[in-house]
Please model this.
Amino acid sequence: MESNPPVTELAAKLTASAVRLLPGRDLYVGHLRTLPYGRWVKSGRLHLPRGFPLVDIMVRYPGGCSDSEKHMVQQHARVTMNAMIEMDNAQRTWPRDFWRHNHEVVQCSPHGYVLNPGKTIDEATRKAVLEASTANAGIAFEYLQNLSAAYLCELYEPERDEILLGLFSRLTRLYWSLEAEFQAAVIRPAAVSGVLTGAAAQNSPQYKAVIEFLEASRKKDLDAIINCVDPQSRETMAEMFKSNKAEALNMFASMAAEAAAMKLNKVTVRGNSAEIDFGDGKPASEPKQSLRVVLVKGEWKIAQ
Model:
């Protein structure tokens, strides 16, 4: 009886297979994408209109086609399959029904708490509270990274995983919202010393510091990003990049893209710190994104 192949041999084969799939849109991977498309056509789930220009090429695919013709067929198959899968997912009603039922059977009622005013804390205590909060955020981020790497999803029956991860994501958002509310209640911001709008806001050193940070994030320039943040935030950021550099850079680039699509609302200066609000460009409107900067040795730096 033939024994199972060693793990190293299986790993080598799996690696070779993954390497072949890396190009994504070459003729080899493109041909693999046409296989489910062909099954849909043969099973009658997909019909082509009379006179469709690619029919003649499809009949000859793949052996009787040039490379350019193969690319045409593969592109059509890829686009069509993506559209069909999206339509198929849109017709699935179980996620909507599950969450609606979940909302009906669980009594969800808002619970308000009022914190009694406390004593004004000194700068050292304020920094200690912020450092503890930042450390907890780093621990939570690392845990989520490890969880995403270790969790094994059932690819053929994803419903259970989607429900479990959906519940977990709700709990995670609840944690972050409570942590943010607690921090905002405990640490009172400094008094507003100025509100800049229009040209004054766009020409302010605080806004220019944010633009420099967003540009570095857009370019995924790690050294430039680190240089744009204050020393207190660099340790947390270093841990974030150490955990998963590529994903963290993508997150910063996505944030920069979102900010680029919005307008500057206003710059609220609070002494040695400031908040830069982005949104629809109206100073009185609710900001969709806000970044904070602090003054460090005469330079404005991004802060948490």
Observations:
- The two ends are 62 Å apart (CA to CA).
- The longest strand covers residues 263-270.
